[in-house]
Specification:
The complex is a heterodimer of chains A (about 270) and B (about 110). By secondary structure, chain A is mainly beta. Chain A has 3 helices and 20 strands. Chain A has 2 domains: about 110 residues, Crystallins (Gamma-B Crystallin, domain 1, Sandwich), CATH 2.60.20; about 140 residues, Gamma-B Crystallin, domain 1, CATH 2.60.20. The chains are: A mainly beta (about 270), B mainly beta (about 110). Strand 8 of chain A pairs parallel with strand 9 of chain B, so a sheet runs across the interface.
C-alpha cells in the first residue's frame, strides 16, 4: 500500500456517502482509512446510502458496531477503476438492511485487513494559550512542496449525524469566510498522524480552544466532543461543546501549516 | 505528482452552510472528469475548491458538460489554488493534469 505515514494510510480506501440524490446542495461524505469499529462515534452511524471504493480495496458492512451482523461486501480488490455502489432498498419488500443501517466497517487492502488504525479519545476545551509542540523537523516553503503536504489533508472536521466531513489542509482564521459556515459545525474530528489540530471558539485563533496532538502518533485520532456517542453508545461527558468553533490551526511535525505557504487565494 | 495513481485527487470541493440550516462543513475529492457528479452524491454542491499544482478543472452547471462554466487553472502553479468565490454548484466537471484530461475512472464494476 502506498501513501503511508507512520504505517497509517493517509489516503482513504473508500468513501461513505449519505443521501444520494435526495436533494441538491449536499456533499455528505466520510473518508474511510481502515476498519471502523463504531461509525456513530465518528458521526456517520446508520446513514450510508452509497460507497465508492478504490482499486485494491474491499469493505464489509456490518449492521452493528464492533463488526456484528455482516450485511454485505463490496469488493474492488481486483479492480482497475474506482467502484461506486448505491446501497438500495430492494423493491417491493424492503427489509431495512440496505442503506442507513451500517455501524461498523471492515476494510481490506489486497486481502489484508487494515485494522486498529483509529484511536477514539474525548477532548475537553481549555482557555488561555495552547501548549506549544517542539518541532520535530523544520518546514520551509520548499519542504512543504517536497513533502507534498498540500496534497493530503491533515485533519477533517465532521458534522454529525452524517452531514459532512471537511478536509483541513492548513490553518483557517475564519470558517465563516472560508466556507460560509455560520451555523452547525463540528461534532468530532479526525487528526492524521504527524499533525496537531487546535480548534478555537473565536475568529483569528482566539477564545477557548481544543488541542488534539497527533504529532508523534501511529494511528488516526478520532477526537470526540459531547456531540457524538462513545464506543459503548453512551452520551459523552467531559468533551468539548460542539458546533462552537470559528477558526483552527493545523501543525505538521510541530510547524504550523500556514495557508499562504501552500495555497494562493483566487476569486474568479 | 500522482495523477496516474487514481487514489490521489487533484481537486477538492467544499460545500457551505446550506441556506442557514447548518447542513454544511462538507468536502469531497474530485479524481477525474465526470459527466454527472450526482452519481457520487455531488448534487450542485461545490461552493469552494482547492486545486493542486499542475491541475486544471472546469466546472459545468449542468450534466454532460453543459451550461455555464467556471475554470480554475493551476497548470503552471507551484502552490494550491484556493477558490473562495462561490461556484454556485456544478453537475459535471473536466479535470486536466499537465494539460491532459484525466478521463472518467469510475465504474459500477471496478473495471
Amino acid at each position: 500500500m502506498s501513501f503511508l505515514y507512520n504505517n497509517v494510510p493517509i489516503m482513504p480506501g473508500a468513501y461513505l456517502v449519505n443521501g444520494l440524490s435526495s436533494s441538491n446542495n449536499e456533499l455528505w461524505q466520510l473518508p474511510i482509512f481502515g476498519s471502523v469499529r463504531n461509525l456513530t462515534s465518528m458521526g456517520f452511524g446508520n446513514v450510508d446510502n452509497f460507497y465508492y471504493i478504490m482499486p485494491g480495496y474491499k469493505i464489509e458492512l456490518y449492521r452493528n458496531s464492533e463488526y456484528n451482523a455482516l450485511s454485505q461486501t463490496i469488493d474492488n480488490t481486483d479492480g482497475t477503476k474506482i467502484m461506486y455502489k448505491q446501497i438500495v432498498t430492494p423493491s417491493p419488500n424492503p427489509t431495512g438492511i440496505f442503506g442507513d443501517d451500517c455501524n461498523s466497517i471492515k476494510m481490506f487492502y489486497e486481502g489484508v485487513e487494515i485494522a486498529n488504525k483509529y484511536t477514539y479519545t474525548i477532548y475537553g476545551q481549555s482557555s488561555g494559550t495552547p501548549p506549544a509542540t517542539t518541532p520535530i523537523t523544520t518546514l520551509t516553503s520548499g519542504s512543504h512542496k517536497l513533502l507534498n503536504l498540500s496534497l493530503f489533508p491533515g485533519a477533517y472536521l465532521i458534522n454529525s449525524p452524517g452531514v459532512g466531513c471537511m478536509a483541513i489542509f492548513f490553518s483557517i482564521t475564519s470558517l465563516n469566510t472560508f466556507i460560509d459556515q455560520s451555523g452547525d459545525r463540528e461534532d468530532c474530528v479526525l487528526v492524521m498522524p504527524g499533525y496537531k489540530l487546535i480548534l478555537y471558539s473565536g475568529n483569528n485563533h482566539t477564545g477557548t480552544y481544543v488541542a488534539i496532538n497527533n504529532t508523534e502518533g501511529t494511528t488516526i485520532i478520532v477526537g470526540l466532543s459531547t456531540g457524538v456517542r462513545d464506543l459503548s453508545d453512551n452520551v459523552i461527558t467531559g468533551g468539548w461543546t460542539p458546533n462552537n468553533i470559528l477558526s483552527c490551526k493545523l501543525f505538521f511535525n510541530g510547524n504550523e501549516v500556514i495557508q499562504t505557504d501552500i495555497a494562493v487565494t483566487q476569486t474568479s | 505528482m500522482f495523477h496516474q495513481n487514481i487514489r490521489v485527487p487533484g481537486v477538492y470541493i467544499f460545500n457551505d452552510n446550506v441556506s442557514g440550516t447548518g447542513n454544511g462543513m462538507q468536502s469531497a475529492p474530485i479524481f477525474c472528469t465526470m459527466s454527472d457528479m450526482s452519481i457520487l452524491g455531488m448534487n450542485q454542491s461545490s461552493e469552494r475548491a482547492v486545486v493542486f499544482p499542475k491541475y486544471k478543472v472546469i466546472f459545468y452547471a449542468n450534466t454532460n458538460f453543459g451550461g455555464t462554466t467556471r475554470t480554475i487553472d493551476n497548470k503552471d502553479g507551484t502552490k494550491c489554488i484556493y477558490e473562495n468565490n462561490a461556484l454556485n454548484g456544478a453537475l459535471s466537471c473536466a479535470v486536466y493534469y499537465g494539460g491532459v484530461e484525466i478521463p472518467n475512472i469510475f465504474s459500477t464494476t471496478g473495471t
